[in-house]
Design brief:
With 334 residues, the protein is of the alpha/beta class. Helices cover 48% and strands 15% of the residues. The chain folds into two domains: 209 residues, Class I glutamine amidotransferase (GATase) domain (Rossmann fold, 3-Layer(aba) Sandwich); 106 residues, Arc Repressor Mutant, subunit A, CATH 1.10.10.60.
Length: 334
């Protein structure tokens, strides 16, 4: 029988939803797999805390740990729940978490941080010179506090070795589908996916940044430029400076970029910005003007025109359509 050991860490002010959703999805996977194949797997989910006392989570929810951090052993997947608002005070008070993470990383345990819990990995020094993401609300503060981390602002999921970061609770569902396929099989993953909002799911591959992967065109100078644009999408595009950054003349840079990417640097940047704006329109309550500003546009009217040009509908209509998918009930047939 295949043993699958998953641990969820408990600490104050964490979002209970970022614990319950992964646990429910993994439990559903194990139940479905056992219904098909019999007792071929055994999933164990352990809640670990600094002590054996119940931990108060965001919303006043108390959760009782099964064991202390130090008692964890033989873990296949370690999940760090998201923190509400500023995570730094909680990170500073939980040095034992950093110690556990360093040990788990050495043991090749797969570690997944949700939202601002990526600060635990960064504080432990595990993300130095590695790609990572965090919740959009905390990205600027994260970049300032951890300059050695290669923050991927345009990606909701990153992977570097056995370290995974997801930007939000919604995104952890996409990553769980990836782990379910890894622990069980594709059929089990698809079954679980069908029960957890399939209309809004995106695959792990679709929106993840995996360290070591490169774009399919293979032009390293263009890849370097694309990566710079992904990481600095809020900044004004200066083709002269970007070309120099890649060691090319402006003319050669523009020619090679179009040949490799099939679009100009400006068109690529616009696509990146609109992709990020889609997530903000779906998952946040920012106004259209605030979304425009968040992705690098001072003029919300220009942003709206560009959004409609690329997606066929203005931002306001897009927001209504995706939120309709999230919250509307199916029509009743007589």
């Amino acid at each position: 029988m295949k043993q699958i050991n998953v641990a969820l860490l408990l600490y104050e002010h964490a979002l209970a939803s970022s614990l319950s959703l992964p646990a429910e999805m993994l439990s559903a996977a194990d139940n479905f797999n056992r219904s098909r194949k019999g007792p071929s797997t055994q999933l164990t989910i352990t809640l670990a805390g600094q002590s054996k006392e119940a931990v108060s989570h965001s919303g006043g929810i108390l959760i009782q740990p099964h064991c202390r951090y130090q008692q964890l052993d033989n873990i296949d997947l370690l999940i760090l729940p998201a923190l509400w608002r500023n995570p730094i005070p909680v990170v500073r008070r939980n040095d034992e978490v950093s110690q556990l993470l360093r040990l788990s990383y050495q043991r090749k345990t797969q570690i997944c941080s949700v939202g601002t819990a990526s600060c635990f990995l960064a504080e432990a020094g595990l993300l130095d010179n590695k790609p990572a993401t965090t919740h959009w609300y905390f990205m600027d503060a994260f970049a300032h506090r951890y300059p050695e981390v290669k923050l991927q602002r345009a990606h909701l999921i990153t992977q570097a070795d056995n370290l995974y970061c997801v930007g939000s609770v919604n995104s952890v569902a996409d990553l769980m589908i990836h782990f379910i396929e890894q622990f069980y099989d594709r059929a089990t993953a698809r079954e679980v996916e069908s029960h957890f909002s399939p209309e809004i799911r995106r695959t792990y591959k679709e929106h993840s940044f995996v360290e070591g992967e490169v774009s399919s065109h293979g032009d390293e100078s263009v890849i370097q430029a694309q990566q710079w644009l992904l990481e600095h999408y809020q900044q004004h595009l200066d083709s002269t400076q970007l070309a120099a950054h890649c060691g090319l003349s402006v003319r050669s840079f523009n020619r090679r970029f179009r040949a490799a990417a099939g679009m100009t640097p400006g068109e690529y940047l616009a696509k990146v910005r609109v992709d990020i704006a889609q997530g903000l329109l779906k998952d946040s309550n920012l106004s259209i003007a605030e979304v425009a500003f968040a992705v690098g546009y001072q003029d919300s009217s220009h942003f709206s025109r560009l959004f409609k040009q690329l997606l066929g509908q203005p931002p306001s209509s897009y927001r209504k359509s995706v939120r309709g998918k999230l919250f509307s009930l199916p029509e009743q047939t007589p």
